[in-house]
Amino acid sequence: MRFLFVVCFISQVAIAQFAPPQGQTGSTAMYKDSSAFVAWASACKITRGLQDISNTSSGYATVGDSSSAINIADGNVVSLGDGGSAICTFAHEIYNGIGYDFAVFENSFDGDYLEFGFVEVSSDGVNFFRFPATSNTQDTLQTGAFGDSDATKVNNLGGKYIVQYGTPFDLNEMQGISGLDINHITHVKIIDVVGSINTTYATHDKNNNKVNDPWPTPYASCGFDLDAVGVINQQSNNAIKKIDDNISVSVYPNPASTNLCISLNNALANDAIIYITDINGKTVIQKELESTENILNIDVAMLDNGFYFLQLKSNSICVTKKISITK
Q1: Closest CA to 34 of 230, 225, 227
Q2: In the 8-state DSSP scheme, what is residue 69?
Q3: If DSSP states are collapsed to H, E and C, what string results for 240-261?
Q4: CA–CA separation, 158 and 261 (whole Å)
Q5: What pTM, to 2 d.p., does this model score?
Q6: How many other C-beta atoms lie within 10 A of the C-beta of residue 183?
Q7: Which end of the chain has the least Cβ crowding within 10 Å, N or C?
């Protein structure tokens, strides 16, 4: 007698994966020298956490100070300690533009050893609201003090990327929150994730999952190591920026698919150059604009989908605009 065995395979529902480490396709890591950044945090207030939250005699984190978190990312950091926090302020308010609006820099030395931080924003300095963070990292085995983490398992947590590469945040995700004006962000707060999976000390993502990262780290440099907060959309750089009383620049369509038009309401006094750069600051298109031209058409069909930055530069002006390529 012949028997027929039918074997059924039930596929598992894939856990959502997020942007990979810097240098891999699809990464959102932003290099510190990217032309996207128009400003940096100008002041910072630090509240230190313990070196080991489970041991009150361990003392507090001590590496760095508030000055380490201001100006451009340079590798000099302030360590927050377990559950410690930093509140950064800026010369001008951050607003919700197209794509990412600011980025948080940590100092991961290899892109795998990752210490995470929650990110919150405020438009009054009193009421703070947290970006909806996700951690799909397993929470049954504690990541050790020198253990690695997988960047593709986390989203909306500071610290995803290697030193000098920031994790970007989009204020559009915070729309509709009562008490928050996403076009007038005055404060950005970074709070160290206590990476313990011990229920007593654990911190949780938006789905109430424990966020597992290297712990315990009972050292002076423990916790999230804040390097900088870079601003992409700042109120003083909003909308159509006036070059002088007679000239303004507009870019359309935006998003674009195959062709981008740059229009000036008046001819420039000097010849100018158009640069289009990706989020890592790499120039992907460069065109000259003659002083007699009011309109320049640029072929962008070869660009991949995503966000780019367009700069118009001459001897006397520099205008930066964010553009989106969608096909």
Answers
A1: 230
A2: G
A3: CCECCCCCEEEEECCCECCEEE
A4: 35
A5: 0.80
A6: 15
A7: N
Q: Mean pLDDT throughout 291-299?
A: 81
The dihedral sign for the CA sequence 106, 109, 110, 114: negative
Computed over every residue of the chain, the mean pLDDT equals 88
Q: Which amino acid is at 288?
A: E
Query: Beta-carbon neighbour count of residue 20 at 10 Å?
Result: 18
Q: Which two tokens stand for residue 255?
A: 């998003």
Domains of the chain, residue spans: 21-238, 241-325
How far is residue 273's CA from residue 290's CA, in Å, rounded to a whole number?
9
Q: What's the CA gap between 158 and 180, in Å, rounded?
A: 20
CATH topology of domain 21-238: Jelly Rolls (2.60.120)
pLDDT digits (tens, 9 = 90+) for 180-227: 999 999 999 999 999 999 999 999 999 999 999 999 999 999 999 999
Exposure of 110 in the CB half-sphere (CA atoms within 13 A): 7
**Rounded-to-integer distance, Cα 249 and Cα 265, Å:** 7
